[in-house]
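User: Could you check the structure of this?
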Amino acid sequence: MDRTAGKVMSMREAVASFVHDGDTVSLEGFTHLIPTAAGHEIIRQGRRNLTVVRMTADIVVDQMLAAGCVTRLVSSFVGNSSAGSLGELRRRIEDADPEPLAFEEYSHYGMVCRYLAGAQRLPFHPLRSYAGSDLPSVNPGIRKVTSPYPAADGGTEQIYVVPPVNPNVTIVHAQRADRRGNTQVWGLTGVQAEAVFAAEKAVVVVEELVADEVVRSDPNRTLIPAHAVDAVVVCPRGAHPSFAQGYYDRDNAFYRSWSAISKDPARLREWLAEWVYGTADHAEYVAKQGEEFWAGLAVGEALSEPVDYGRRL
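Assistant: Sure, the predicted structure tokens are below.
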């Protein structure tokens, strides 16, 4: 495959091509740019036995669990983004209801280090932040090695390490990309780039496709280069209910409502039936919300100061 050729495809095509039963799938986006629409398409296509790697497991993970897609979760945080709890996830972990969920827990920085090790094809990544933590007692993947270098006092030092993570596919959401997959992100950048480089395959979902010249005009915003990308999916408003910096705001009302929805298994499955299985794709999901709803999430301009990169005369 020519990894610099045009890679634009529909969400349905991308999920069918790159997400398979039994895969390890990374879904990354921190606070904004959460790849919710991609999670919904995975649900529609009925994927099973997935290991989901997501630093901040939130609503989209809860929904994928309720749909029966996920049997193992690797994460450093679980919760409804400061707005409550995740009912399906809690039932799985606390009561094995309707079946157990294998849960592999790390700290935030531990997950960052796992992605870094995966991206750099290292056997592990060292970190100091587990000293005094209980996490090593519940996660055998967090281990200690002897440093080959002397400690500050000249003695031998034992240091914690975490293993690499190399997903079969990473899916991230971003503001824009060109047809080759040069992907630009602004605002919170999270670990999207590291998660993409750690994976065997990568799908970027964007608010808009732009001309090559737009990307070349502002190269420092290119977080993910074309050679790391296998598919580009254009999916406006695909991060809802999270936000996309500069495109639409966070749907706080939905976040507040999710705890009550997910607390009741019947209500949760009704929500999935209406909003995921009952919509053919994300465009239909967006249309079902209505323009008045989206107008309430509109954002005003906050333009960045132009910079002059200069050019040879």
